[in-house]
# Entry
Amino acid sequence: MSDPWFESVAEAQRRARKRLPASVYGALMAGAERGQTREDNVAAFAELGFAPHVAGNPAQRDLAASVLGQPVSLPVIISPTGVQAVHPDGEVAVARAAAARGTAMGLSSFASKPVEEVVAANPQTLFQVYWSGDRDQIVARAERARNAGAVGLILTADWTFSHSRDWGSPKIPDHTDLRTILRHLPEAVIRPRWLARYARTGRPPALTVPNMAVRGAPPPTFFGAYGEWLQTPPPSWEDVAWLREQWGGVFVLKGVCRVDDAKRAVDAGVSAISVSNHGGNNLDGTPATIRVLPAIADAVGSQVEVLLDGGVRRGSDVVKALALGARAVLIGRAYLWGLAASGQAGVENVLDIMRNGVDSALLGLGRSSVHELSRADVLIPPGFLRAPGG
# Structure
C-alpha cells in the first residue's frame, strides 16, 4: 500500500487527479472562460521574492493569530466550497481536520453536509451565504446557522454568470438516479478507490444542498439552488448593510477586488472583507488577488480585517499575503485535493504543509511571529501591483 502522506500540495493535486473521476476532478479545476484569472492567482505568488536574513534569526516562531474573533493556531482557514463529491465524508471530514489542526472552517450554503453536523465537528465554523431568494429565505438560512452555533456569517458576492470555459465544462448531473449512475459508471470504475469509498456508504454522491432548504421544504438539488440564485437580483450595498444588521455578529463580505468596494464595505459595517475573485470562477481577466491586496489593505486595513483567498498553494504564499497586508488567508482547492487524496488525514496533511512552510519562511526572514511580517520582507517587481477603484 502506498504511503498516504504527501509533502506538497502539488503532490496532493497529483493524487486527486489520479483518484477522482474525470468530471469530478474537472469540476475542482474549473475556471471561467480561458482561465486567465485562475492561472494568475497562482502565478502571481511566484513573481514575489523574499529578503532573508542569515544570522540572528529566532529559534522559535509563533504562528498563532486571532482571525474573525477566533483564536487559530496558524493564519490559514478553510474557505467555503460547494458540494464536495471528492469524498463521502465531505465537509464533516474537512471540519474535523481543521479542528484537529486548530483552525476555523468556512461552510458553504451549497455544501453537501448540514450546518449542524459541521458545527458539531468544528465549533469554529463560519457559515457562507449567497444573496439567493427573498430576504425571508436568506434570514432563515442565517438563523439556522446561528442556532447551530456558527460563529460568523460570510456573504459571497464574487460570483457572476460567466462560467463558460474555453476547454469545456464537465457534465455535472442534477440527480443521481439510475440513468445518471449508468452514464457516469465508465469513468467511475477506472477510479476504484473513489468508487469503493462511496460503495461502502451504500449510496452515490449526494447532489442536494441541505443548507439551502427553508421553511421545512426538502433540500433542493445543487442546480435547483443555483437556479434560485440566477433568478435573484444581485444585492445592493443597502442589502449588504441590512444582512449585516440582521446577523449582528462577525460578518465577512467575500469577493472584494477594488479599493472603492472595500471602502463601501466598511461603510456597510462589515467586520472583514475577503479579497477574492472566486478562485478564478468569476469574471475572467480580474487580477490575481495578491496583486490587489496591498492597495485594499492600505485603504481599509486599519478599520476591518482583510483576508485573502485565491492561488495559495504553500506556506510561503501565506507569508507573502500576510506581509502585504492580509490578516489570514483562506484555502480552497488545496484542501479539496487533500480530501480527495486521503480524506480527513489528507486535509490535515495540507494544513501541516502550510504550517511548516509558514514556519520555514519566518525563520528565513528572521521573524519570530506572523505579526512581525511587513512589506519590507517581500520583493515586489515593477508593474506587479494593481489598484482598481483606487
User: Anything to note?
Assistant: The longest strand covers residues 125-130. Residues 16 and 341 are 5 Å apart (CA to CA). The radius of gyration is 20 Å. The chain has 14 helices and twelve strands.
